[in-house]
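Saturday, quiet lab. Running sequence design on the structure tokens for the scaffold JK sent over.
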């Protein structure tokens, strides 16, 4: 598939309890391309993050191979400064997972993490009815 004709700003990730949704987003904002993967609650963090890294790489290739920043929203107690998922009610067995460090190592790109409610609130403020 040829690279997307639009300028891509970032890759957004929503880690849920049963699935992970990933999107290429443009600066307008516009969702340019989406992917999702199902998760089993029995899967460990390492397995999930490796699969997620493959999806991020696939989308990065579709965007022309650029080193795009990745923003991740995840439910639970999140240490945004440290890039760590302390605990998550949706992700059994995820305790003190250094998500930013692991995804950065797997994809060699800038990654930021925050609680999904914070991320949704920011998006609503910038692009939704609250702007």
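Result came back. Writing it out in full:
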């Amino acid at each position: 598939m040829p690279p997307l004709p639009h300028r891509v700003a970032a890759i957004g990730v929503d880690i849920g309890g049963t699935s992970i949704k990933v999107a290429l987003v443009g600066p307008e904002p516009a969702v340019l391309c989406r992917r999702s993967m199902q998760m089993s609650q029995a899967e460990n963090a390492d397995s999930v993050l490796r699969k997620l890294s493959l999806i991020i790489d696939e989308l990065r290739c579709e965007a022309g191979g650029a080193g795009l920043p990745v923003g991740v929203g995840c439910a639970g107690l999140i240490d945004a400064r440290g890039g760590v998922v302390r605990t998550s009610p949706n992700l059994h067995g995820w305790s003190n997972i250094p998500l930013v460090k692991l995804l950065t190592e797997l994809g060699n790109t800038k990654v930021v993490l925050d609680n999904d409610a914070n991320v949704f609130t920011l998006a609503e403020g910038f692009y939704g009815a609250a702007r």
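Notes for JK: Residues 13 and 72 are 5 Å apart (CA to CA). The longest strand covers residues 30-38. Ask whether to fix the surface positions before the next round.
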